[in-house]
Write a structure and sequence with these properties.
Keywords: Acyltransferase, Transferase. The protein is α+β, with helices and mostly antiparallel strands. It has a domain at about 20-75. Helix content is about 35%, strand content about 10%. The strands form 2 sheets. Strands 1-2 form a two-stranded antiparallel sheet. A two-stranded parallel sheet has the order 3-4. It is elongated and about 60 Å long.
Length: about 110
């Protein structure tokens, strides 16, 4: 029997430019930085503000980051792991995954 092995050999990432800080939230609702941080650990959030863009856009940017950082040919990517709680469509998260693959690179997705 052949032993199947796998390894994560590279990781790419992307976060949107817009930062929503706790100080900004203090202006919107009755709260403060200390209350938020002690209960959630959150100090800031990155929010995608570009119209018509969703989580698949973030995934594509992360894949592009990986390709540029490692000098990869997109065809060298065997597997893309993408997780989200906010898919582009009101369906299960793998819908975003399929969109990401179809728009960008041909590889297996999980």
């Amino acid at each position: 029997m052949t032993k199947i092995t796998a390894a994560i050999t590279a990781i790419g990432g992307y976060v949107p430019d817009f930062v929503l800080t706790n100080a900004m939230l203090e202006e919107m609702v009755e709260t403060n930085d200390e209350w938020i941080v002690t209960r959630t650990g959150i100090k800031e959030r990155r929010i995608l503000k570009e119209e018509g863009k969703g989580s698949s856009f973030l995934g594509i940017k992360a894949a592009q980051n990986l390709i540029e950082k490692k000098g990869l040919d997109p065809k060298e990517i065997d597997l893309l792991i993408f997780a989200t709680a906010t898919p582009d469509m009101p369906r299960c998260p793998h819908w975003t995954l399929c969109s990401l693959t179809n728009r960008s690179y041909q590889c297996f997705c999980f």
